[in-house]
């Protein structure tokens, strides 16, 4: 009989979560590098370059790949012959490991978990509790798979109850474009088929723990219907031309993972969950011989990618930029931003709206007239950092506030992740504002452009407080111009047509 000690379990859990915060799985990095080398759209190639550079920087600096350090999901397979030397429940041990990992002073991770989700939505401050799936199996070990899933990709999860005669491929091809780019492609699609609705969703999530191996499958050929579906879905999704960060291009997904389970004769449940550019998961096994700690990879395994300032890149001074200058920017243009900007995401936007509508007005420090606001919830700094990883959050969540904020405050522009929805586009066009896109999955790289940072309002909101950042050469793409034209509409349309017409080689 194997004896598993409480401290060994907790230490292993905390170590795995720290490890995946700054080390990408190498199979994912190799897949993105392959996609980078094949990519023909300069904007998508640039986005993947930033993702790869950011990944290497995080591996070197032991800081988070993404500012959204995720909700922790754990799959536990506990052997029937295991005995515990512990005074905590297994769930409590998991959560203690999460707590220690996220509060580690050497690499503080962002606490994103809110209690009372339909009410007060109060931050638990230590990223607990985790979502835990436990299974008792034969054997004398504890097998643990752990992941940290960002909200931007988790929010794009889809579930459908198809008719048994319906095509799963057709549903995926129809559904992926509705997900936008807020899940930060290129990534993976996890698909669960069968069981019941909740079983399909768990299968989809669990499938994302598997390694990237679609190219090996392609070379040897499929052995069953599930493997055929993986290839069919991957090829069909990449032909959509969505591309890295939704800018248009050859690679939207680097792998498709599928798990299935027997289902009712009248049912065909299908769940689809995307994994983003901050793919984070680890596996360890406890066998009674102590903690199971992760083995660091060699930095030599990362590709040596550089990001160069091209001839067409414009430098923009945020302290002096005018609306006339802004009107010359075209969708797809690359800008390097310097100067001061304010930050604010969901909770801050809600509070701004409430203060204006109540007549109380905004604090003097939150003067948005002719300024830019960055949708971000950063990681706290450590050591000599000005700010921790500070990548963008999904911009569509702010769409419902955009018209009000632009009209009431005189805000000039916004910076965020992925596309804007119809409501946001209409407001941008109406007020001749602009929307700039920073690369999701390059949070540590972005943070290096921040030269000063301070909280100026709503400190009680934690990571959702309003900061003032001063930046130097922060790279962004013009995603929506003053006329409301969106690169997230034009880019994929152009590349879908090119792929169809030219039969371009896909990953």
Helix-strand layout with pairing:
Blueprint: E1 2-5, H1 6-22, H2 26-38, H3 42-61, E2 71-79, E3 82-85, H4 90-102, E4 114-115, E5 122-123, E6 131-137, E7 142-149, H5 151-154, E8 158-162, H6 168-175, E9 187-194, H7 197-207, H8 214-220, H9 225-238, E10 253-261, E11 268-275, E12 281-286, E13 314-317, H10 323-326, E14 334-343, H11 346-358, E15 372-374, H12 399-409, E16 413-416, H13 422-431, E17 434-437, H14 443-447, E18 450-457, E19 466-480, H15 487-502
Parallel strand pairs: 1-3, 2-6, 9-10, 13-14, 14-15, 15-16, 16-17
Antiparallel strand pairs: 2-7, 4-5, 7-12, 8-11, 9-11, 14-19, 17-19, 18-19
Helix pairs in contact: 1-4, 2-3, 6-9, 11-12, 12-13
Explain what this protein looks like in three dimensions.
The chain is 33% helix and 24% strand. It has 507 residues and is α/β, with parallel strands linked by helices. The chain folds into 2 domains: 2-286, no CATH class; 314-492, Fe-S hydro-lyase, tartrate dehydratase beta-type, catalytic domain (fumarase, Alpha-Beta Barrel), CATH 3.20.130.10. A hairpin with a 6-residue loop joins strand 4 and strand 5. Helix 2 (26-38) runs antiparallel to helix 3 (42-61) and helix 6 packs parallel to helix 9 (225-238). The radius of gyration is 23 Å and the shape is globular. The model has no long low-confidence stretch (mean pLDDT 96).
In short:
This protein has two domains: 2-286, no CATH class; 314-492, Alpha-Beta Barrel (fumarase), CATH 3.20.130.10.
């Amino acid at each position: 009989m194997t004896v598993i000690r409480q401290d060994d379990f907790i230490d292993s859990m905390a170590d795995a979560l720290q490890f995946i915060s700054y080390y990408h799985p190498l199979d994912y990095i190799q897949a993105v590098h392959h996609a980078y080398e094949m990519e023909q759209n300069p904007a998508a190639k640039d986005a993947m370059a930033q993702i790869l550079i950011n990944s290497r920087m995080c591996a070197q600096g032991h800081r988070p790949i993404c500012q959204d350090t995720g909700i922790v999901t754990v799959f536990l397979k506990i052997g029937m012959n295991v005995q515990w030397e512990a005074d905590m429940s297994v769930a409590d041990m998991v959560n203690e490991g999460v707590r220690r990992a996220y509060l580690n002073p050497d690499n503080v991770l962002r606490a994103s978990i809110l209690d009372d989700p339909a009410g007060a939505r109060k931050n638990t401050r230590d990223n607990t509790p985790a979502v835990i799936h436990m299974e008792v199996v034969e054997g004398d070990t504890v097998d643990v798979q752990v992941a940290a899933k960002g909200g931007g990709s988790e929010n794009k999860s889809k579930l459908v109850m198809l008719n048994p005669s319906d095509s799963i491929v057709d549903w995926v091809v129809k559904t992926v474009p509705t997900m936008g780019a807020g899940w930060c492609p290129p990534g993976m699609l996890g698909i669960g088929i069968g069981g019941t609705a909740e079983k399909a969703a768990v299968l989809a999530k669990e499938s994302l723990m598997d390694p990237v191996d679609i190219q090996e499958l392609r070379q040897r050929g499929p052995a069953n219907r599930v493997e055929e579906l993986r290839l069919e879905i991957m090829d069909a999704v990449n032909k959509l031309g969505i591309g890295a960060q939704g800018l248009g291009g050859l690679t939207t997904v680097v792998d498709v993972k599928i798990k299935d389970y027997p289902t009712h004769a009248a049912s065909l449940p299908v769940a689809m969950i995307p994994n983003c550019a901050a793919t984070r998961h680890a596996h360890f096994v406890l066998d009674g011989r102590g903690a199971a700690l992760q083995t660091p990879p060699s930095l030599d395994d990362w590709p040596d990618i550089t990001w160069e300032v091209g001839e067409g890149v414009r430098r923009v001074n945020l302290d002096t930029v005018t609306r006339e200058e802004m009107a010359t920017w075209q969708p797809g243009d690359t800008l390097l931003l310097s100067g001061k900007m304010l930050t604010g995401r969901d909770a801050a936007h809600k509070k701004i709206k409430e203060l204006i509508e109540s007549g109380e007005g905004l604090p003097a420090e939150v003067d948005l007239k002719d300024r830019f606001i960055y949708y971000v919830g950063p990681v706290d700094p450590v050591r000599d950092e000005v700010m921790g990883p500070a990548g963008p959050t999904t911009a569509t969540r702010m769409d419902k506030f955009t018209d009000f904020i632009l009209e009431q405050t005189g805000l000039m522009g916004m910076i965020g992740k992925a596309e804007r929805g119809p409501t946001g586009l209409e407001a941008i066009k109406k007020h001749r504002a602009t929307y700039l896109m920073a690369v999701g999955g390059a949070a540590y790289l972005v943070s290096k452009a921040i030269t000063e940072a301070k909280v100026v309002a709503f400190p009680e909101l934690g990571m959702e407080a309003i900061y003032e950042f001063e930046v130097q050469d922060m790279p962004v793409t013009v995603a929506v111009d003053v006329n409301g034209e969106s690169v997230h509409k034009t880019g994929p349309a152009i590349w879908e047509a090119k792929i169809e017409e030219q039969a371009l080689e896909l990953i």
